[in-house]
Write a structure and sequence with these properties.
The complex is a heterodimer of chains A (437) and B (285).
Chain A: H1 2-5, E1 8-13, H2 17-28, E2 33-36, E3 51-53, H3 54-58, E4 72-82, E5 87-93, E6 104-106, H4 109-122, E7 126-128, E8 133-138, E9 144-149, E10 156-163, H5 170-174, E11 186-195, H6 198-205, E12 211-219, E13 227-233, E14 237-245, H7 246-252, H8 256-264, H9 270-273, E15 277-287, E16 298-299, E17 302-304, H10 320-339, H11 346-349, H12 351-357, H13 360-367, H14 371-377, H15 379-398, H16 405-420, H17 422-436
Helix pairs in contact in A: 2-4, 2-10, 10-12, 14-15, 15-16, 16-17
Chain B: E1 2-6, E2 9-11, E3 17-18, E4 25-26, E5 32-34, H1 36-52, E6 55-61, H2 67-76, E7 80-84, H3 94-112, E8 117-121, H4 132-140, E9 143-155, E10 160-167, E11 170-177, E12 180-184, H5 196-204, E13 208-210, H6 254-268, H7 270-284
Helix pairs in contact in B: 2-5, 3-4, 6-7
The chains are: A alpha/beta (437), B alpha/beta (285).
Function (chain B): May play a role in a redox process involved in nitrogen fixation.
Keywords (chain B): Electron transport, Transport
InterPro entries (chain B): ET-Flavoprotein_bsu_CS, ETF_a/b_N, ETF_b, ETF_beta_N, Rossmann-like_a/b/a_fold
Chain lengths: 437, 285
């Protein structure tokens, strides 16, 4: 039994992108790592759109493209502003994205996470599945020294516990490391997987080979709530989903299911899904509180990475890359302390936050720190009034009906002014610019 | 005591789909599980281990990925895992499978001691034949107890075992001499949750891996597709029934409602009415 009492260099709670990044990085550097995942296998509980941002993974596993299960590389981004019958799109497509090492991929998380987890094991970490960490174990000074699980037996000890437990972060909450999630800082997203033959997908979206398209949509599709919809092309399926802030759902009484059904039946989306078979549906929370919602990230013997640390850039729909990056940076911090034989004290682990502050993670989140609140407070305008006005303007502009263009311009401007007053619009513009900078 | 549990990794049948055009089973991306019936066998072995002290070896034949199922069996508390894997085994029917497994079991006996009891589930959910267990028993000259719902008593000194066997029309209590092969019935017990120590041991454990040569198989024509006389002539997906259940609404007393129901049935199936009338004419006139 002596073997069990020997503390691990690190225990990682969770096998999502951040946990796998952390466990892989530490194990590869020779640390004795135990990773504990509650799902039957890595990826069995994990849900995402899902887009993989290559850069973050490349910094961990440079040759990942040769082995990871990837669906399509993204060559086209469509940004849609929608009202109930129309969408106004800004599309960017470039053959430059058909590069040797593409920048973004669509993935299926169940397969991708399984692969990532196999790399973690190859690197030498010990991985337990179907095991839930229930609480942190502390010594008399309050330092975290291990974890207890839902399995019978003694607690497992480690020099440091990396909390990669995901958005709900129950272990951290239960252990008093952070507050319960506030309903206005977290989104509930639902999605479905629709299967279609790959030729149909390629014809429908104007693709060839493994090229892929991403559609991000906002507007009246969220029925006045703060949120967005999306549609991603996979190899032989389409991921379609929509998500809104939880407190908005509570206020409006709209169910996520109604929202997704309406989105799928929108005249701009419906033909893209025609004749497909829905084979999978999932729901998940997304931390969208941004910079202001980031909890305490380190303490004596513990360190937080990924969704548990609210590392999501809601404006740019980035999350998994922040998760992998924070996982890697936390691991590098632990590795360097272990090498120097230094203690995992709160002061020493704070080096993680310094490293993050210098990375895109904190710089981006800081840049957009005002956006979540701004959008949420003015949701009626940003997700209802403006999308409608834009659609009406486009329709007036493009409909040929014998009315002269000067009158059309006047009509459009009048419509904007009457619906949202000049001062209102200027105020919104000012607030957006200020929050964006 | 040494107990061997033969398990099989099978596709999770709840998630399998039949290809609408080719009628073949679409296995791609379907998660695998331990054959559910085998879990009752494993739990029964672990209970004997708790009660009498025993070493429990789990054995499977399958592709290298079947090691996942073995590792999972270790998390429940089994002591040792053996994987029999070789491309020559691909396409085995029950005859070839029981041959290969019996050879592996002989090797297990040599290496780790002769098993007093070999457990299997009553059948697998992908083949549903229930032939491999008895096939192994026959080849190893073990007594066999099939469809066992309970182990009543194991007398190690006397070398006997008494069990309950579910049979048509009743319950049989059987006693036989060890060594024995037992196939366990579903719902005979409930699988435990392994301790954290078991989980750690399982994560660290090396799975003993043998190929055909390692277990002393010289005649490869007895293995895999070549050693399998079973031929799959046709695979088809059952067509969904198009007729729907009909609800007959009627009010009034029981007699009136029964009459309305009979009338509805006769209206739908006139043959039933004529048959009944003919029958009544023969018997009651």
């Amino acid at each position: 039994m002596g073997e069990f009492n020997k503390p691990f260099d690190a225990i990682v709670v969770g096998a999502g992108p951040s946990g796998n990044a952390a466990a892989y990085t530490m194990a590869k550097e020779g640390l004795n790592v135990l990773q504990i995942e509650r799902g039957e296998y890595a990826g069995s509980k994990n849900v995402q759109g899902a887009i993989l941002y290559a850069d973050a993974l490349e910094k961990i596993i440079p040759e990942f493209r040769d082995e990871a299960p990837l669906e399509r590389h993204v060559i086209e981004q469509r940004m849609w502003t929608m009202d109930d019958r129309s969408h106004t799109g800004m599309h960017y497509r470039s053959d430059d994205f058909n590069e040797e090492k593409p920048n973004r991929y669509t993935i299926l998380r169940a397969q991708f996470d399984k692969w990532f987890s196999s790399k973690v094991k190859e690197a030498g970490a010990l991985v337990l599945y179907e095991t839930t960490v229930t609480e942190l174990v502390r010594d008399l000074s309050g330092k975290v020294i291990g974890v207890r699980t839902d399995r019978q037996g003694s607690p497992i000890m480690a020099n440091v516990v990396v909390l990669a437990e995901g958005v709900n972060g129950l272990v951290g909450q239960r252990s008093g490391l952070r507050d319960e999630l506030a309903p206005d800082t977290v989104a509930l997203a639902v999605k479905e997987m629709h299967f279609l033959p790959r030729e149909t997908i390629e014809a429908r979206f104007n693709l060839s080979g493994n090229e892929g398209v991403v559609i991000e949509a906002m507007g009246t599709i969220t029925k006045g709530m703060t949120g967005t919809g999306f549609l991603y092309t996979n190899e032989e399926s389409i991921s379609v989903g929509i998500g809104c802030i939880v407190s908005d759902f509570a206020e409006t009484d709209v169910t996520p299911n109604e929202l997704l059904e309406a989105f799928k039946n929108h005249p701009s989306i419906k033909p893209l899904l025609a004749d497909s078979e829905c084979k999978e549906y999932a729901a998940h929370l997304i931390p969208e509180g941004g910079y202001k919602a980031i909890p305490q990230l380190t303490g004596a013997g513990w360190i937080v990475v990924g969704d548990a640390g609210q590392f999501v850039n809601a404006v740019h729909r980035e999350g998994s890359n922040l998760a992998m990056t924070t996982g890697r940076v936390a691991a590098e911090t632990v590795v360097s302390l272990t090498r120097k034989r230094e203690e995992m004290t709160a002061a020493n682990l704070a080096a993680y936050q310094k490293r993050l502050a210098q990375s895109f993670v904190m710089k981006d989140l800081k840049k957009y720190k005002g956006i979540p609140e701004l959008l949420h407070k003015n949701k009626g305008n940003f997700f209802g009034t403006y999308p409608k006005l834009l659609s009406q303007a486009m329709q007036t502009w493009f409909r040929v009906d014998g009315i002269d263009k000067v009158s059309k311009e006047k009509a459009i401007f009048r419509n904007f002014r009457e619906t949202r007053t000049l001062w209102g619009m200027m105020g919104d513009a000012f607030r957006v610019v200020r929050a964006w900078r | 005591m040494h107990i061997v549990v033969c398990i099989k990794q099978v596709p999770d049948s709840g998630q399998i789909r039949v290809h609408p055009v080719t009628n073949t089973i679409m296995r791609q991306g379907v998660p695998t599980i331990i054959n559910p019936y085998d879990l009752f066998a494993l739990e029964e072995a672990l209970r004997l281990k708790d009660k009498l002290g025993a070493t429990v070896t789990v054995l499977t034949m399958g592709p290298p990925t079947a090691a996942d199922s073995l590792r999972k069996a270790l998390t429940f508390g089994a002591d040792r895992a053996v994987l029999l894997t070789d491309r020559y085994f691909a396409g085995s029917d029950t005859l070839a499978t029981s041959f290969a497994l019996s050879m592996a079991l002989k090797k297990v006996a040599e290496e780790f001691g002769k098993p007093e009891i070999i457990f299997t589930g009553k059948q697998t959910i992908d083949g549903d034949t229930a032939q491999v267990g008895p096939g192994i028993a026959k080849r190893l000259d073990y007594n066999q107890l099939t469809y066992i719902s309970r182990i009543v008593e194991t007398d190690l000194d006397g070398g006997t075992i008494r069990v309950e066997r579910r049979a048509e029309g009743g319950l049989q209590v059987l006693e036989t001499k060890l060594p024995v092969l037992i196939t366990m019935l579903e719902a005979s017990n409930e699988m435990r949750r392994g301790s954290i120590e078991n989980a750690l041991i399982a994560a660290r454990a090396d799975v003993v891996t043998w190929n055909a040569q390692a277990v002393g198989i010289e005649d490869l024509t007895k293995c895999g597709l070549r050693g399998s006389p079973t031929i799959v002539k046709k695979v088809f997906a059952p067509t969904a029934r198009t007729e729907k259940a009909q609800i007959v609404e009627a009010e009034g007393k029981a007699d009136a409602r029964a009459a309305a129901l009979v009338e509805a049935i006769f209206a739908k199936a006139p043959a039933v009415e004529s048959d009944l009338l003919e029958n009544a004419a023969q018997h009651y006139v």
